[in-house]
Amino acid sequence: MPIDLNEHLKRKNANNNNSNNGGNGDKKPPKNPLKMNFNPNFNMPSNKTIIGIISIIVVLLIFIAAKPFVIINSGEIGIKVTAGEYDNTPLQPGLHFFVPIIQNVIIVDTRVRTINFSRTEDMGVVGKNQGIFRNDAISVMDSRGLTVSIELTVQYQLNWATAPQTIANYGLSWEQKIINPVVRDVVRGVVGRYPAEELPVKRNDIANLISTNIETEIGKFANQPVSLSSVQLREIVLPQNIREQIEKVQVARQEAERKRYEVEQAKMEAEKAVTLAKGEADVNRMKAQGAADAMSIEAKAQSQANRLISESLSSRLLELRQIETQGKFNEALRENRDAQIFLTPGGAVPNIWVDSKNAKKATSVSGN
Q1: What's the rounded Cα separation, in Å, for the pair 140 and 206?
Q2: Among the four 84, 166, 170, 213, which has the fewest Cβ within 10 Å?
Q3: Distance of alpha carbon 62 from alpha carbon 64, whole angstroms
Q4: What span, in angstroms and rounded, lies between the C-alpha atoms of 172 and 186?
Q5: Three-state secondary-structure class, residue 205
Q6: Three-state SS for 10?
Q7: What is the pLDDT of residues 109-144, one digit of tens each?
Q8: What is the CATH number of domain 113-238?
Q9: Three state DSSP letters for the chain
Q10: Do residues 130 and 181 make contact, with C-beta atoms less than 8 angstroms apart?
Q11: Cross-strand partners of 97
Q12: Residue 69 to residue 104: CA distance in whole angstroms
């Protein structure tokens, strides 16, 4: 049985006193200045108490080492696993406790994730930490059996409500079992319908078909494990001979387009020249028409004048004109008696006067 510590100290002190007083009678032992003032009434803790304290410390150490709690951040959910069985209710962001050894919590990222189907691009560890992965580009046989490489980017998101069932069925590599095979099958099915040289021309139609068909195929999975965010067709890598053929066709098209543009320009210049020529012709025609109209008006005016003159020549007027002319000859004869008078046919009144004195100087008088 364990000895009580207080009783043991009392006995020890008594033995010390007896040994010190045995030879000297009442002589008191010298005081030890270094002896501490010890209260014999102090009760030391019992063994049970010490064991309890040690047990508590051990439990705390085990608790800290086992870490029976988990903190789930935003954009994540937790899946509690109890003895290998997945709990269908996901744990939301926050602090959650579980029983170590028996239980465990799997944290799953529910943010938008990306797979790049590419020949060269690789984000490495940084990309994986940010939910970006790279798979090899998709090799496809076109409708004639030529190999075509397709590069595209797929963005998707895990359905947090059914995440426990998805992880239970497909494991933590669920995206390589759902997204990867579906994308490859759909791309091969769509691109394989077309010959290689038509792929660049029908790029938009092919991209729409790939996106629609991938969304349809993923929707066929039970419990809707994934929601598709976007599918981007990045590049269509054609065989070398097909690329050269397409480049030749493009060059020929550009040359034809250039010639067509030159022909259009020539036609526009010709039409412009014709328009200018028509304008000049219209101006000349208008000028000629104006001259003709002026001559016609003048002729009509002259004819009208002649008609008026003809109508105004009466017999009395002619007699008056003869008298006036005869008067002029009489005046001329008075000045020059050697003058010669010529009579015009058709009348008796002379109407031409010639001065016979000066042959160089002659006067002509016309009767009207």
Answers
A1: 13
A2: 84
A3: 5
A4: 24
A5: helix
A6: helix
A7: 999 999 999 987 655 544 556 788 889 999 999 888
A8: 3.30.479.30
A9: CCCCHHHHHHHHHHHHHHHHHCCCCCCCCCCCCCCCCCCCCCCCCCHHHHHHHHHHHHHHHHHHHHCCEEEECCCEEEEEEECCEECCCCECCEEEECCCCCEEEEEEECCCEEEEEECCCCCHHHHHHCCEEEEECEEEECCCCCEEEEEEEEEEEECHHHHHHHHHHHCCCHHHHHHHHHHHHHHHHHHCCCCHHHCCCCHHHHHHHHHHHHHHHHCCCCCCCEEEEEEEEEEEECCHHHHHHHHHHHHHHHHHHHHHHHHHHHHHHHHHHHHHHHHHHHHHHHHHHHHHHHHHHHHHHHHHHHHHHHHHCCHHHHHHHHHHHHHHHHHHHHHCCCCEEECCCCCCCCCEEECCCCCCCCCCCCCC
A10: no
A11: 69
A12: 9
What pLDDT score does 125 carry? Answer: 46
Do you know the residue count of the chain?
368
Q: Which pair of tokens denotes residue 230?
A: 């976007």
Closest C-alpha among 71, 65, 6 to residue 39: 6
The alpha carbon of residue 130 and the mean position of all alpha carbons in its chain are separated, in whole angstroms, by 25
pLDDT above 90 as % of the chain? 32
